[in-house]
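Thread amino acids onto this structure.
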C-alpha cells in the first residue's frame, strides 16, 4: 500500500524536510563526539528519515571545544547522508558549578535561585547558538518526561511563589523565556522544537487542557513545532494527544509512540492528528524502515518486538544502545567497510 503522506516533504521554519519521518532522540551512551556515534546516526540518515534528532545533550557540554567539533562532524555526516539534523538541548537541573537544584526545595536539594534561573536560560541560548554554528539544522528543547523543565510546569514539583511558580501562567514562564531567548540567540535561523509530555499522571498534576494552552504560548514565544511525548491514550491510540494539541496551534505537531507501524503512522497523518511522526525503537531494529516503506517492501521490515532488552535495558545499565532484533545496532562503526575521513 502506498504511504504517500509519510513521504510528502514538509516545510519547517525555512527548512524543508524530505519526508515526515523523524528519528526520535534516544540516549545511546556512545556520546555524540565519537566515531561510533557518528556511524550509528549516519546509518539512520542513510535509511531515509527526514530528520535525525540527536540525543539529549546537556547545555553545559556545548562549552567544550572537543564536543562541539564532534557535533560538527556528526552534523556533516548526517546531512551528507540526506537527512536534516537536529540536536536536543537538555538540563537536568545541574548548574555549571556542579550543584543539583530543583524548581522548589526538595529533600534531595535546594530550589533554584532566580539568578541561577537566568544563567540556565542563557546557557540554553548559548548552546543553541553553538549548535547552529556547528551546522545543526534544528534545535529541540527537552521539556518532557519529568525532567527539570517539565517539573517547572508541574504544580506537584513547582511550589514557588515568585515569577516562575504558583499559578499556571507563572509555571509556563521558564519554558517560554528559554524559547524566546533561544529564538533571539539564533537570529531566527533555525527551527526550535519543544518536546513536552501532554499529561502528568499524578494527583494534582497538569491536564491536557493545560498543555493545549501551553502549546499556544510556545507558538507565541517562537517555537516552530511541538513534539508531543509520549503520545498515548488508554485505548492505545498514541496520536490522540497530539491531535488535541494540533488543533490548538498553527504549528506542525510531532507524534511519537508506536509509530513504527507504517499503517498507523500514515493514518495519523491523513486524519490530521499530527504533521510528523517520530520513530525510536523501530529505527533501532531496522534503520531502513523509511526506504522499505517507500518502496512497498513493508514485509521486509525488521520489527521491534517491544522486548526492551538492549534499548531500555542498556540505557538503565549505562551501556551503549543495541537491539535484540538487529545485532548491528550500535556496532555500525565496526561493521563499516571503509572509515570515513572525519
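Threaded sequence (342 positions):
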Amino acid at each position: 500500500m502506498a504511504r504517500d503522506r509519510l513521504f510528502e516533504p514538509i516545510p519547517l521554519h525555512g527548512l524543508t524536510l524530505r519526508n515526515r519521518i523523524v528519528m526520535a532522540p534516544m540516549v545511546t551512551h556512545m556520546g555524540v563526539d565519537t566515531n561510533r556515534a557518528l556511524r550509528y546516526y549516519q546509518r539512520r540518515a542513510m535509511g531515509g528519515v527526514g530528520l535525525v534528532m540527536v540525543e539529549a545533550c546537556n547545555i553545559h557540554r556545548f562549552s567544550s571545544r572537543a564536543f562541539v567539533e564532534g557535533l560538527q562532524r556528526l552534523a556533516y555526516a548526517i546531512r551528507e547522508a540526506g537527512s536534516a539534523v537536529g540536536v536536543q538541548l537538555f538540563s537536568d537541573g545541574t548548574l555549571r558549578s556542579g550543584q543539583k537544584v530543583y524548581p522548589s526545595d526538595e529533600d534531595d536539594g535546594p530550589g533554584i535561585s532566580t539568578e541561577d534561573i537566568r544563567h540556565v536560560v542563557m546557557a540554553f541560548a548559548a548552546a543553541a547558538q553553538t549548535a547552529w554554528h556547528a551546522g545543526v539544522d534544528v534545535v529541540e528543547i527537552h521539556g518532557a518526561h519529568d525532567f527539570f523543565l517539565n517539573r517547572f510546569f508541574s504544580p506537584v514539583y513547582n511550589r514557588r511563589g515568585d515569577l516562575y511558580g504558583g499559578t499556571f501562567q507563572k509555571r509556563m514562564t521558564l519554558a517560554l523565556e528559554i524559547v524566546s531567548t533561544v529564538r533571539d540567540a539564533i537570529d531566527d535561523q533555525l527551527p526550535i522544537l519543544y518536546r513536552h509530555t501532554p499529561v502528568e499522571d499524578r494527583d494534582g498534576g497538569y491536564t491536557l487542557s493545560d498543555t493545549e494552552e501551553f502549546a499556544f504560548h510556545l507558538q507565541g514565544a517562537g517555537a516552530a513545532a511541538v513534539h508531543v511525548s509520549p503520545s498515548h491514550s488508554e485505548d492505545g491510540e498514541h496520536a490522540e494527544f497530539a491531535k488535541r494539541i494540533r488543533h490548538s496551534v498553527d504549528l506542525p505537531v510531532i507524534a511519537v509512540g508506536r509509530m513504527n507501524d507504517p499503517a498507523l503512522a500514515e493514518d495519523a497523518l491523513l486524519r490530521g492528528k499530527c504533521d510528523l511522526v517520530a520513530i525510536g525503537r523501530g529505527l533501532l531494529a531496522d534503520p531502513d524502515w523509511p526506504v522499505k516503506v517507500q518502496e512497498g517492501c513493508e514485509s521486509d521490515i525488521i520489527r521491534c518486538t517491544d522486548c526492551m532488552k538492549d534499548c531500555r535495558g542498556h540505557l538503565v545499565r549505562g551501556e551503549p544502545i543495541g537491539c535484540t532484533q538487529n545485532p548491528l545496532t550500535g556496532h555500525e562503526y565496526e561493521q563499516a567497510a571503509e572509515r570515513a575521513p572525519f
